[in-house]
Amino acid sequence: xxxxxxxYAGVELGDQGVFKSSGGRLLAIATTGGLFGxxxxxxxxxxxxxxxxxxxxxxxxxxxxxxxxxxxxTTIADTxxxxxxxxxxxxxxxxxxxxxxADRGDxxxxxxxxxxxxxxxxxxxxxxxxxxxxxxxxxxxxxVAFGATLNAGGAGVFTATAGTLTTVIDGSGPFESFRGALIxxxxxxxxxxxxxxxxxxxxxxxxxxADKVIAMGDLxxxxxxxxxxxxxxxxxxxxQMVIRIKLADDRQMIVQVE
Length: 258
Hints:
- The protein contains no helices and 25 strands.
- By secondary structure, the chain is mainly beta.
- The chain folds into 2 domains: 1-119, Peptidase/esterase 'gauge' domain (Methylamine Dehydrogenase, Chain H, 7 Propeller); 125-258, no CATH class.
- The strands form 6 sheets. Strands 4, 5, 6, 7 and 8 form a 5-stranded antiparallel beta sheet that branches. Strands 13, 14, 15, 16 and 17 form a 5-stranded antiparallel beta sheet that branches.
- A hairpin with a 4-residue loop joins strand 11 (109-114) and strand 12.
């Protein structure tokens, strides 16, 4: 991705858009008017080929997941057929496949992946799953990680590779609830969870002490952590993680964790 960045912005006359800055040049990926009636404010994501994935509302009604790099926009999925809505951010892999969380028109929910023309389910509500966290993620090996609640009770974090679902961790161990998961290119899964009799935090493995990254109430820079936020692109290809933190003294910051 060289020196490229992508972002959502409001522009003149109330319009909205997704933009990319690369090599000192600003390029509009998509703006309201024409096809789109609304874009954002949830941010876009971008892969190493500078292809951007984003959510937008259609002027004709409904909404969708789209990709673009400055020319024609590709529709990954929209609400004109099977799906009724979307949650969270779409995340695009190096190969251009986009993973997203969606609601179905029949009342079901699912995690899906597509690259234009069609999309396939990674996991859907039914026999096993009751609901899904809003932010699934995908690495460049196209392994998808997601959090879910279970029909049998409890919750967990799962990965999917080539149609095979694997349980990373569930409520049978030291954690009682899970909020979402990130995966890096080494296959390491980082998740937000609450240990039994503990506090919500970010963990990189099954041990709530040894694998803790941060947790609510931890001492930090002369204060304590009062809140934090992750999204599906908080982990990069090098395995570095960026977390937005709010402290009890009202300071807010973005920190990098190696």
